[in-house]
Amino acid sequence: MPTPRPTIVDVARHAGVSKGLVSLALNDRPGVSPETRRRILASADLLEWRPSRPARQLSLKTAFALGLVLRRDPHVIAADSFFPHFIAGIESLLANAGRSLLLSVVGDEAAEHAAYTRLAAERRVDGLFLTDLRVHDRRFELLRRLAVPTVLVGQPSEPAPWPAVTVDDRAGITAAVRRLAAAGHVRIAHVTGDPDMVHGLSRRHAFVAAMTDLGLDPTLVEIADFSAASGAAATEALLCRDPRPTAVVYANDPMAIAGLGVLTAGGVRVPDDVSITGFDGSEVGAYLHPALSTVTTNPYGWGARAARTLLDLHEHGAADDVALPPASFIPRGSIGPVPSPTVPSKE
Amino acid sequence: MPTPRPTIVDVARHAGVSKGLVSLALNDRPGVSPETRRRILASADLLEWRPSRPARQLSLKTAFALGLVLRRDPHVIAADSFFPHFIAGIESLLANAGRSLLLSVVGDEAAEHAAYTRLAAERRVDGLFLTDLRVHDRRFELLRRLAVPTVLVGQPSEPAPWPAVTVDDRAGITAAVRRLAAAGHVRIAHVTGDPDMVHGLSRRHAFVAAMTDLGLDPTLVEIADFSAASGAAATEALLCRDPRPTAVVYANDPMAIAGLGVLTAGGVRVPDDVSITGFDGSEVGAYLHPALSTVTTNPYGWGARAARTLLDLHEHGAADDVALPPASFIPRGSIGPVPSPTVPSKE
DNA sequence: CTGAAAGCGCTTACAG
DNA sequence: CTGAAAGCGCTTACAG
Q1: In sequence order, what are the residues at sequence separation of 6 or more whose Cβ sits closer than 8 angstroms to the Cβ of residue B88?
Q2: Among A41, A64, A133, A282, which is least packed by CB within 10 angstroms?
Q3: pLDDT of res. A347
């Protein structure tokens, strides 16, 4: 049961002024004499008054909140280090802007669309972050109808009427492939992320392009979905290939870590027999043995920039696309020179 | 720039009734004839009207939101699988209850207190989740002053005026120690979580109690803080002990995974030379080699139950403590029998 | 069963 | 510089 809190009327009475004046004083607007302003602020302090958000929302037609809807298996979110840093980045801006973050975690598409609709149609948020962009993203049509300011986190695969804050993740994959090729690897494989997601697909395209550029066979690709389980299964499939790849580029860290487990369990030494790389720079990867090579994208900065863009969009009605520094490759112990050719298993 | 949306007045006009009646009809209250109700609902549907939250909040004095403030290094949150599942559990209840989750991620205590104060004093939330309970938790005094419904997620170390939803994590540690002892281990070590946190301390107490009960030396304890980095450092310290422990009970999975890396890098085989166990059941642990033994606490169910309790508290002014099923130990490949005694390294 | 009115706690022209 | 009033979009007694 909420305790009655002081309202603007209490402050006005205490300071001996009208409530309109209290409002002016507290929002630093002109038209209040310094002396009166001081008295009002003192009363507000004394009464521990804070303007009610709901009341401000109603008169200002602003929600003072931004929304993030996550449709992913909690297991995948849990394994992924992206979101905690991304969210921390968002919040680094919101606190100062007097805004809050509304987070929705949903299970399926129906719940997802319901969540977006509620947030927007009930005016709970001033804008929405769109993450985990999908290849034919059905949220685009929905959000266009809802007419709510939106920022795209990532490069959309089709035109969309909102600003995008992007990081070129292809650069990280390209760097990984080049590094492996420079170490003599030729049979380099890729374990993809969810192919329905733009960043799953774009990392795969980057892999194929980098391999092709180097004149290498780009067809050693196993489809997975970013989950550790799928990374393990894909790795097992790769181990059955003949000839076996000598290096694997995984589309994220959890799959690479699971892959490392499968390789080690199968008696395949990393990096002596097979080199591996991940993506997204989870903290734990640095502490594995061997330490996992990975690609970092600074999700904290990404979140902060996306929030900045969304606030701009809400305040000014427009905001520019932002291209953040490309992902960069961090080599660690999990990659090494190509194993010296031994007797092929067949032929 | 928000597009003008239909208001209750538009619906009333369209249906040819007063707006009061629209409100009654849409909230399923008595006093509206079936025929009129039907007409009103049809108009609302047609106009795609949704009641404005801010307006409802103001007249109902309800925020329709619950708040969660996280003060942790994003790296630690990212490595920890607890929060994504916990949050997903919360949301599983909120969606149906028409509530949203307000999430704040903050860096230090000042920002944390400011966040709680804003959420409560500005009436942004109807209640707060208190997680990561600390040993002398200074939030208790703050929240008492703020007089906002609160639910404790975990057992507080000192009396507090709010219901607590608890999971006995001691049971998991006890089970791990017993299992290791049954496998012949005597020199069992513990790498603690953050000792300022209740669950860091209680796991340590559980370790000491379980060892003492078994008549084993409970002093092989290294203080860490739940981060992978601290788990790695603690493991290195344990490796320098003489005699070396043959088993290590870590207070969470990220530290155990980092410890596994350190052990492997040092040529110590797991579980042949040293057995290890984690806590919290991250997905990736199951895919390591050897697979990480761990303790699960069902954070999804925990979140759902905490949300249920908080809603009850808000609606009825009171709610009972809830004790969820205790944590359970999941043995996997990372534990094995005590190594057969060889020549001690010294003496 | 239905309508007109007051109120939730703010902000903001509009007068003085 | 200050006050009185209207309005944001709902809900809810109070009359009829």
Answers
A1: A74, A77, A105, B300, B303
A2: A41
A3: 40
Between A82-96, A158-172, A285-299, B20-34, the lowest mean confidence (pLDDT) is in B20-34
Tokens of A237: 């499939």
Per-residue burial over B243-267, b if 16 or more Cβ lie within 10 Å, else e, is ebbbbbbbbbbbbbbbbbbbbbbee
Q: Quick check: B291 and A261 CB within 8 A? A: yes
Residues of B in contact with A95 (CB under 8 A): 104, 106, 111, 114-115
Helices A53-60 and B53-60: angle between axes, nearest 10 degrees: 140
Integer Cα distance of A335 and A179 in angstroms: 9
Q: How far apart are CA B313 and CA A2, in angstroms?
A: 11
Please report, rounded to whole angstroms, the spatial distance between the CA atom of protein residue B44 and the C1' atom of nucleotide D16.
27
Query: Which of B61, B93, B253, B287 is most worth mutating to test chain A (most A CB atoms within 10 A of its CB)?
Result: B287
Question: Across-strand partners of B106?
Answer: B71
Amino acid at A286: A
Residue A79 with chain B: CB contacts under 8 Å: 81, 282-284
| Strand C atom within 7 Å of A44 CB | no
Task: Determine if the pTM surpasses 0.70.
Answer: yes
Alpha-carbon distance values, A199 to A131, A139, A205, A271, B293 (Å): 10, 16, 10, 27, 33
Which residues in 243-302 of chain A line strand D, with CB less than 7 A from it?
A: none
For chain B, which ranges sit under pLDDT 50? 1-2, 343-347
* Domains located in chain A, CATH noted: 8-51 (1.10.260.40), 65-168+299-326 (3.40.50.2300), 170-296 (3.40.50.2300)
Residues of B in contact with A57 (CB under 8 A): 53-54, 57
Q: Which residue has the tokens 């380099």?
A: A188
Distance from C-alpha of B132 to C-alpha of A243, rounded to nearest angstrom: 50
Place of tokens 């000042």: B110
Each residue of A23-57: pLDDT tens digit? Answer: 999 888 887 888 889 999 999 999 999 999 999 99
The integer distance in angstroms from the CA atom of B109 to the C1' atom of C10 is 30
What Å distances lie between residue A266 and A238, A256, B132, B335, CA to CA? 12, 15, 39, 19
pLDDT in tens, B291-346: 999 999 999 999 999 999 999 999 999 999 999 999 999 999 999 999 987 544 44
- How confident is the model at residue A3, as a pLDDT? 56
Task: Answer whether A54 sits within 8 Å of B123, measured CB to CB.
Answer: yes
Each residue's pLDDT tens digit, B137-169: 999 999 999 999 999 999 999 999 999 999 999
Taking the CA of residue A256 as centre, how many other CA atoms within 13 Å lie in the half-sphere pointing to its CB? 34
Residue spans of alpha helices (H) in chain A: 8-15, 19-26, 34-47, 53-60, 74-79, 82-97, 109-121, 139-146, 170-182, 198-213, 228-240, 253-265, 299-316
A35 CB neighbour count, 10 Å cutoff:
8
Tell me the per-residue pLDDT of A91-148, one tens digit each, with 9 for 90 and over.
Answer: 999 988 889 999 999 999 999 999 999 999 999 999 999 999 999 999 999 999 999 9
